[in-house]
Amino acid sequence: MADGGQAIDQAHVIELAARRLARALGYGGGFLADTREEAERNAESTCGIGHLSVVKRGRVIEQAAKSIHESTRVRRQHEWKQSAGVIAIPVARPDQDALAALSFAKLDGPLEAILLLYATGDVPKYWPIVKRFGLAVKAVRFAEEALTDAMQRILCGRAVMAQDMRAKALNIRASRYRRLTSACEDLLRSWLKRASHRYLLAVT
Question: Does one domain contain both 83 and 180?
């Protein structure tokens, strides 16, 4: 039970750090919108949040008509009914504290890159940095494939290819590849946990 609780706490810490950083960088849908009734708000009192009313096309109030002499046509006119609801349009606000915390946290080595990778999902930008450090630690054959599969499991919940199929494609024993992938995943998760803890300490 203690181990399970610790795993949940670690995952929660990682999610908190990633979401705070993602919002600061403009990724994801983490912005909060005010959803009060339209009658209680107006454009002048809205602080940084725009809103649109929802309207629906109703009954026909005027039929189409055509002028014979001028050869012009007037389209049929509908009544538009306004809904009582409101659409909130969140406005991104730069979170300077969250951005500055990246410097204060002193995320050296692969820590900053792996946290940014997890928060933004920008694989082309950040994965090469993480992989370079991973290969320096796991200097064994097929480490690049194992690191890539492990990172995909962290980001997406599963790798593109099953471990047994990957082992078959690499012509190695499946048990050996599973051990290597597990070790790589443990390494990457340890970096992500350390980065998240340091970041949250710096941002609070």
Answer: no
Residues 118 and 155 in one domain: yes
Judgement on whether residues 58 and 153 belong to the same structural domain of the protein: no
What is the span of the domain harbouring residue 66? 38-89
Q: What is the pLDDT along the chain (204 residues), one digit of tens a residue?
A: 345 555 558 888 999 999 888 888 877 554 444 433 334 444 444 444 445 566 677 776 766 655 555 556 666 676 777 766 655 555 556 678 888 888 898 899 999 999 999 999 999 999 999 999 999 999 999 999 999 999 999 999 888 889 999 999 999 999 999 999 999 999 999 999 999 999 999 987
Q: Are residues 138 and 195 in the same domain?
A: yes
CA angle 145, 120, 188 (to 5 degrees): 40
pTM of the model: 0.66
Same domain, 85 and 103: no
The number of distinct structural domains making up the chain is 2
Q: Nearest CA to 199 among 127, 95, 122?
A: 95
Q: Measured between alpha carbons, how far is residue 69 from residues 59, 72, 73, 74, 76 in Å? A: 29, 8, 11, 14, 19
Could you tell me if 118 and 180 lie in one domain? yes
SS (H, E, C) 164-182: HHHHHHHCCCHHHHHHHHH
